[in-house]
Design brief:
The complex is a heterodimer of chains A (289) and B (395).
Chain A lengths: L1 H29 L6 H18 L5 H22 L8 H23 L13 E4 L2 E4 H23 L1 H11 L1 H6 L4 H23 L10 H15 L4 H21 L2 H18 L10 H4 L1
Antiparallel strand pairs in A: 1-2
Chain B lengths: L1 H25 L10 E8 L6 H20 L3 E3 L2 E11 L4 H14 L4 E5 L1 H13 L3 E5 L20 H15 L5 E7 L2 H16 L3 E8 L7 H8 L5 E3 L5 H13 L5 E4 L5 H8 L8 E2 L9 H14 L7 H17 L4 H7 L5 E3 L2 E3 L13 E7 L2 E8 L7
Parallel strand pairs in B: 1-3, 1-4, 4-5, 6-7, 6-8, 8-9, 9-10
Antiparallel strand pairs in B: 2-3, 10-13, 11-12, 13-14
Helix pairs in contact in B: 2-10, 2-11, 3-4, 5-6, 8-9, 11-12
The chains are: A mainly alpha (289), B alpha/beta (395).
């Protein structure tokens, strides 16, 4: 039983990590808290539904790639057209992205319909390890998510683009003086962020139910993780995601699922009181301003 | 010059508008009588994880309205009224339900409301009775139709009715089942459902292994299911959980190796669950209230039209058809829309409904009297297996 619970907590942790790392990037590089981030997660799942179930029987892996690219492109366009006006302006950015959240969600209801949907599992079945049934699909989700997160870490550390993102994150003016195209970097970062959220939604589509309001819960988790891990810290978000995943799953199992989210918020509140910078809080663009 | 041009255009616009109004009010169209309309409020969760239920109810009511219109329409005081069902989406939020109920009653002036389900009924119950609004709820407790709420009429079986029916059926057909776990929404309705299941299991000598309450919107149940499945239940009761959550629970329980059956004390959307989890995942499951074939011509016609319109048969919605027909008869008998008089007529009318003759029991016991059905999924097909009056209606 413990193995099953642990695996499930890793699934939740991996999905939340994908969500929260994108949110951390947006906050620390653009100085924007993106309340519409959950809608990007929802878009990822909805695209999978339309491509794999409703209008076509597309290969799931290909549909995932399309979902990530499409939502990533949407993010890039959104930044170029709208978000750029709110870089570094926390409150205005919050208002603007709450507006986007409402627009995207309300736009999706008539397209998607009011009834929750699901997509067939691309990898059905379970494997037995030491007498425990482990879902193949969930193992794959954890594997892909961890691979992508590590890939992101490598990308940010080793590539020219990643270094530019870090430069903007650390000191925007110094980066500008060094010739970094700030607007371009911000748009790419926002695109990466929304693409990661879409990947989380696409991976979870065959496991959870899909509906236009599904992004809100994922966003709640991401905020808890960011508070816990530390605003602006990718590593903090990564570690916090898996801790919150464990906490949520084991609370649900032994105390009741109705308490699981309440306890997650409780942890966030305690962290805010005891260590406001979180586990590994890094200074973001807004904090430095 | 520019300002004068704007003024000229504005003046022309005003003249056109005034002229149009004058022509309209004096012309022949003014003699055309406005169609008289009777408005009925359908306050339901048209969005969210249980939205399917609202659309099913709406479909059944629309069929009733079509039949009323086809059979001469609603006639009050010698005049024919067109029936309009106005949809209000409470999104399964009692506070929204209350706000909408105030809008329905005070702003839109509607005095007849259908509402689903317990939380939302509780939110508006006192308001509707205070304003003498006839309330036709889908809910799970007879307290809602006690003497303090004389304008509330129940047309739907209680979860306890359905559980009793399913336990009776299991005693006959599946005596091997005797260990159950209940999974409910974390809401007043869920806790009521738990009380009912506990009562029914005790009454029938079953063992109640555990009760779990899941919050609205929870998307994943591995954590919940993993420990409870170690208790090896034969039956998991999913009762009032929304269809979206039911689908995920069933899917995940099967992944975790659960080989028992699911029981649905508040009907089962076979088509939806089949699409979401595959028919094999719900093989052997039983549900009530649920029907596949109807014993009357009215029922057969209703079932055909419902299936054609909604896409699948949802037998439980038949009561929405019957009560709408009864409401029409009560209004016509009272010959007024005055709810006090219509309320007095509610238990004085009968209708040959989808299950046969149907009527409300009395002014003191304001519920429909009907036979309830149990369906089992046998070899991938929903099959009628049991039909009887629920115990509380047998006297």
């Amino acid at each position: 039983m413990i193995e099953q619970l642990a695996l499930n907590s890793f699934v939740l942790g991996a999905i939340v990590a994908l969500m929260s790392i994108g949110l951390v990037l947006t906050f620390s590089v653009l100085g924007v808290i993106n309340y519409a981030h959950g809608e990007m997660y929802m878009f990822g799942a909805v695209i999978i539904f339309f491509l794999c179930s409703r209008y076509a029987a597309m290969d799931y892996a290909l549909a995932c790639v399309i979902a990530v690219l499409a939502v990533g492109l949407l993010g890039w366009i959104l930044d170029k057209v709208l978000i750029v006006r709110f870089h570094g302006n926390l409150m205005a950015g919050v208002i603007a992205t709450i507006g986007l959240l409402m627009i995207f969600q309300n736009m999706m209801w008539p397209i998607f319909g009011p009834i929750p949907k699901s997509v067939p599992s691309p990898l059905p079945g379970v494997i037995q390890i030491l007498g425990t049934s482990l879902s193949i699909e969930r193992i794959i989700v954890v594997g892909i998510a961890v691979f992508v997160i590590l890939g992101m870490a490598w990308f940010i550390k080793n590539t020219r683009m990643g270094k530019a993102i870090r430069a903007v994150q650390q000191d925007i003016e110094a980066a500008r003086v060094q010739g970094v195209n700030i607007e371009h970097i911000c748009a790419v970062t926002f695109g990466i962020s929304t693409g990661l959220a879409a990947l989380a939604g696409a991976l979870i589509a065959p496991i959870y139910i899909i509906e236009p309001a599904m992004g809100f819960l994922a966003l709640e988790f991401a905020f808890i993780v960011i508070i816990f891990g530390g605003m602006g810290s990718i590593m903090g978000a990564f570690i916090a995601s898996f801790i919150i995943g464990l906490q949520y799953t084991f609370t649900a199992a032994f105390w009741g699922v109705e308490w699981a989210m309440a306890m997650s918020f409780g942890i966030a509140m305690i962290v805010l009181l005891v260590r406001p910078r979180g586990l590994m809080g890094a200074s973001g663009r807004v904090e430095e301003a | 010059m520019k300002a004068r041009n704007i003024f000229t255009w504005l003046l022309a616009l005003v003249l056109v508008v005034v002229g149009s109004l004058a022509t309209t009010s004096c012309g022949p169209t003014a003699t055309v009588e406005e169609e008289k309309v009777f408005k009925f409020a359908h306050l339901d969760g048209f969005s969210g994880e249980a939205a399917a239920w609202a659309w099913m109810s709406q479909t059944s009511m629309e069929i009733a309205v079509e039949d009323i219109e086809a059979s001469g329409g609603l006639v009050v005081g010698g005049e024919r009224y067109k029936i309009e069902i106005v949809k209000y989406d409470h999104a399964w939020d009692p506070s929204i339900a209350y706000t909408l109920a105030k809008k329905i009653i005070y702003k839109d002036g509607i005095k007849y409301i259908h509402v689903d389900s317990d939380e939302e009924v509780l939110a508006i119950l006192d308001l509707t009775n205070q304003e003498k609004v006839i309330l036709l709820p889908i809910c799970g407790d007879l307290d809602y139709i006690d003497e303090a709420h004389p304008y509330t009429w129940l047309h739907y079986p209680l979860p306890l009715d359905s559980m009793e029916m399913m336990f009776e059926y299991c005693a006959e057909a599946h005596p091997e089942y005797h260990r159950t776990i209940g999974i409910y929404p974390d809401s007043a309705a869920g806790y009521l459902d738990d009380e009912d299941l506990t009562e029914a299991t005790a009454h029938h000598g079953w063992e109640m292994l555990d009760s779990v309450f899941i919050p609205h919107g929870a998307p994943d149940f591995y954590g919940t299911l993993t420990p409870i499945l170690t208790k090896e239940p034969d039956v998991i009761e999913l009762g009032l959980t929304p269809p979206g959550q039911q689908a995920v629970i069933i899917k995940q329980a099967r992944e975790l190796g659960y080989d028992g059956i699911f029981m649905f004390s508040d009907t089962m959307d076979v088509a939806y669950l089949t699409e979401m989890c595959g028919i094999e995942a719900i093989e052997g499951s039983i549900a009530s209230p649920q029907f596949v074939d109807f014993p009357t011509d009215t029922g057969k016609r209703w079932a055909e039209r419902f299936t054609a319109r909604y896409g699948s048969l949802q037998g439980w919605c038949a009561w929405e058809y019957d009560y709408f027909m009864l409401l029409r008869k009560a209004i016509e008998k009272a010959d007024t829309f005055d709810t006090e008089k219509v309320n007095e007529a509610m238990d004085e009318v009968t209708f040959d409904g989808v299950f046969g003759p149907t009527m409300y029991k009395s002014q003191d016991e304001r519920f429909l009297v009907f036979k309830d059905g149990v369906v089992e999924i046998i070899d991938g097909e929903a099959t009628d297996v049991y039909l009887a009056y629920p115990p509380r209606m047998r006297d």
